[in-house]
Amino acid sequence: MPLADHLRELRNRLAKGVLAIVLVTIVAAFFYRDIINFITEPVLDQIGCHQSFGELASSKNVHCAHITVSGLLAPFTLALKVSLMTGVVLASPVWLYQLWAFVAPGLHRTEKKYAYAFVGFGFPLFLGGGYLAFHVLPTTARVMIDLTPSGAENLLPLDDLLDLVTRMVVVFGLAFEMPLLLVMLNLTGVLSGGRMLGWWRGMVVGITAFAAVATPSPDPMTMLALAAPIWGLYFIAVAIALINDRRRARRAADGPGDDEASELDLTPEAIGEVEPVSAGRLPEQTTTDRVNGYDDVT
After folding, report:
1. Confidence band (pLDDT; 50, 70, 90) for 25?
2. How many domains is the chain partitioned into structurally?
3. What is a single Pfam family found in this protein's UniProt entry (predicted)?
4. Which residues lie below 8 Å from residue 283, measured CB to CB, with a gap of 6+?
5. Is the pLDDT of residue 57 over 50?
6. What is the mean pLDDT of residues 260-279?
């Protein structure tokens, strides 16, 4: 395609993706209260001041947080933010397909296979990380709210709570993609399984440090809840890479397959002594006759 046609196709693909996001956002705007309740309910069940005073006093969790919305425009901004976030998430099959449809014609068959594998395994891994974050966050919030000094009330803005939940889900989801990225690098020949295995001490320390920074709670159990699954996924990725390296080495030892071309030997060889060329004629010329004034060479 000429460049103008590529730009025109990109514009059409982007327009379709944006249109899908806008339509889903409009529909989600009518249900934004239900969406907010779904996102925040697990956390509010742990830290929200919606219980009676007798229930709070009889439990060990004495501290609670009052959910607040401050400002005249805050409810509208909150509804817009939640609706747009829902639109981007629920419309992801449409805009991801548009992105794939734009990129796919330029990929080879092997590259398409790797891309299908990345999407097929990457999406469930991201959902697994987000699900883990969604269930770890209430415990984290409980630990954080218990640090409130006695006699003080904790006011928690609702938009801050939504930002925290969203950030935790995205961070956990992306962290679960790291082992898949290592496997893809191994399949493409960039990274070997032996080198990945040699990094295991540094990776364990690095994953632990990442989990400590990614989780807002100082609770070590929350940090381990994120670090332990990534440790397991990393060693699974190393095992897959080692198996793939062994399979690649066995294939190289067996030589090319029946449908594969063997490597050409391009080493120059000596051609021996060259016979002298007689008076202006090539060796294969047997006559000096010219056709239309030209000899064999011209």
Report:
1. very high
2. 1
3. TatC
4. 275, 277
5. no
6. 66
